[in-house]
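Annotators were shown the component list below and the corresponding predicted structure, then asked to write short factual statements about the assembly.
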Amino acid sequence: MVLQENFAYFGYGYLNNTSSIIPNVPLTFYSFHVMVALGFFFILLFGVVLWLTLKKELMNHRWLLYLMVVSVPLVYIAQQAGWIVAEVGRQPWVIQDLLPTVAAVSRIDASAVQVTFWMFGVLFTVLLIAELRIMFKAIKTGPNEGGH
Amino acid sequence: MVDTTYIFLQQYWWFIVSLLAALLVFLLFVQGGQTLIYTVAKNEDERRLVINSLGRKWEFTFTTLVTFGGAFFASFPLFYSTSFGGAYWVWMAILFAFIIQAVSYEYRSRANNFLGAKTYEVFLILNGLLGTILLGTAVGTFFSGSEFSMVKDNITNIANPVISAWENPFHGLEAVLNVNNVALGLAVFFLSRVLALLYFMNNIDDTNILARSKKQLLYNALPFLLFLLYFLGATMLAQGFAVDPENGVVSMENYKYLHNLIAMPAVLGVLLVGVVLVLWGIGLSVFKTSSKGIWFAGPGVILTVLALMLTVGYNNTAFYPSTFNIQHSLTIFNSSSSKYTLTAMSYVSLMVPFVAAYIFFTWRKINNKKIDAAEMKEVIHIY
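Structure shown to annotators:
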């Protein structure tokens, strides 16, 4: 009866102090601003590129071509910033008010998770090296006669 | 008061999950075909044909696997948390097997590939072996049970609020010690190879590959039937985990799965039609060298697996039994999402016919003619 009456706030029973309800505000704040700033930058960049493409003048602006290349890693930064906002900003909740992350953890040894982490790390690093080598070779070769 | 709408939704979502599992098993022909790369193809040109025939379909299988897992997780989250959090090493092995598949098709024939084409071909073979055998073995535990505890009241334990826990240190790997699980795993493995061979006979225009595929068909169909018949026989004669609908108490019942089929004649009919279609498709290609065998065997597999999945979940059966404490077994009633969640998901599921139509349309576009050696020279994007 008590549980049902207060179920909407069930998750607070796991928390020991009020400070644990508040996520890391600076990290969330700056990540969000990085994500949004980059987002607006991409919109502006694509707008300029589209305009110059329609005018058939894109290739005349070498600085813009360099800027587009430099902008590629900015996409990953924006993406990761967004994930930081989502996953840090949600703390301490998996489900708001009902289930905090501390109560959502599976019962497996930390060592098992660490082994899996390193397996992922090694495999994805090898595949990243493979991908980069293939990509750089393809870039060096350039487009084929079919224009593909 | 019994909420009949909620019960209907739980039954509906078990049907959807079963259908997705059935479609996945059919699409595992890609994995089966990967294990046959060096068997039906004896030179690089033939290997390119085989890999490109499979490569145009590998994403269908991958997305169906993800959709099956996603639908299962969303509709029966307690299964997800119990199995994925508990049978950890089995699911990690399956996950890694599928990670190496994804990159293999894209990197295998690219210039400056420092791992070499052979490495990726080995990855494809590993995916074909492990993906099918482990998935089949994991599904075998739906019938044989797993060693986990599930106590919902644990959520109120502040110090250790874990509902489900695996009760042995092997975290799922012990499933391979159960002969019935392994039989199902090997049945799925050989079935995937049979479907792949039927697919090659339908999709590849090469006399050598056709001849070798036909020869291999019998070599793989026989062990498939052997393992499937063993699994079916053992399962029908075994005890199953029956649930009392009044109070949810689980008890062991002799011949439970056989009783389920008898109690659900429509499911039994689907199973029999499915088996007949599979046998017809194999027979057509073996004895008449027809390229149409896949058109019978494919739907046959879908119907057979659908019937098996419905048998394990319907008719008051625990679909994920616990051998640690049978009262901790999962049923479609005690492991499902809330009524609200299932209702919302059901509205979304109305889009499925459009997705199916789109898949049908793209499949037909990709497969509008057989793949041949000449096409390998013309097409820009080959695997």
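Statements collected:
1. Chain B touches chain A at residues 81, 85-86, 88-89, 92, 96, 99-100, 103, 107, 110-115, 155-156, 158, 160-162, 164-166, 171, 380-381 (CB under 8 Å).
2. Strands of chain B lie at 148-150, 164-166, 239-243, 250-254.
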